[in-house]
Design goal:
Elements lengths: L1 H22 L13 H11 L8 H8 L3 E6 L2 E7 L5 H14 L4 H13 L4 H5 L2 H15 L15 H14 L20 H8 L9 H10 L8
């Protein structure tokens, strides 16, 4: 049973690769870091021809990976992403971004800054990468050029060099301490030795100290701006 399913998946992957080669003979989408034929076909099939968009901002908006703005009078706030457009495209870009950040040093630097310096959650930081990735893919498509991998100084590098740079950075990053669950305060109705002991117990902070965050920022200073 499992062998038959594997054979069907292999045949489907081969068929997808053939159809993708027909839609993108130059392999522009597949030239992006960490994207194989299946993800490339999913991105291109759901996004369509990138030349149909008026500008690159329109491409980003179509993916749904742009901030949602909530305005009321003089107040404006960002509440997550819009999630507009095709859900299949967002899923493919999310998976592609998770692969790309391990190969493209500029995307890895962006992810690091959001998580380690600004304290963003993994999902929140990762959701900012697809917009950058699709913008670069669309720009390459409109120019008829392959995706150019660059380091934080803007110099062109190979995929092996980019992967090595991302690996070195990830190894030099200290692991964060596991979250500490704060002990709930005792009920005010309780009295006696137990309540006094609970009130006197030291409580650990759930966040890294500011000194620790500044130390991490010095270990990996910001390089090329990827906005």
């Amino acid at each position: 049973m499992l062998r038959r399913l594997d054979d069907e998946i292999t045949a489907a992957d081969k068929r997808i690769a053939v159809l993708y080669d027909e839609a993108d003979p130059k392999g522009i989408v597949a030239s992006a870091p960490g994207i194989g034929p299946v993800l490339s076909a999913a991105i291109l099939a759901n996004a369509g021809n990138f030349n149909r968009f008026a500008n690159l901002a329109g491409v980003r908006s179509f993916t749904g990976f742009v901030p949602k703005i909530d305005q009321s009078g003089l107040v404006a706030a960002h509440k997550g992403i819009t999630k507009a457009g095709d859900a299949g495209l967002r899923q493919a870009l999310y998976l592609a971004a998770d692969h790309a950040r391990h190969i493209d040093p500029t995307l890895a630097q962006r992810y690091y800054r959001l998580v380690m310096v600004e304290g963003k959650h993994h999902n929140s930081a990762l959701c900012s990468i697809p917009a950058v990735l699709i913008t670069r893919i669309a720009a390459s498509w409109r120019k008829g050029e392959l995706y150019k991998l660059r380091d934080e100084d803007g110099e062109e590098i190979t995929e092996a060099e980019g992967k090595a740079a991302c690996t070195d950075r990830s190894r030099s990053t200290p692991r964060s301490e596991p979250p500490v669950v704060a002990t709930p305060r005792p009920n005010s109705s309780r009295t006696g030795r137990w309540a006094e002991a609970e009130r006197s117990r030291p409580r650990r902070s759930l966040r890294h100290s500011t000194r620790h965050e500044k130390k991490l920022a010095k270990m990996w200073p910001e390089g090329l701006d990827c906005r």
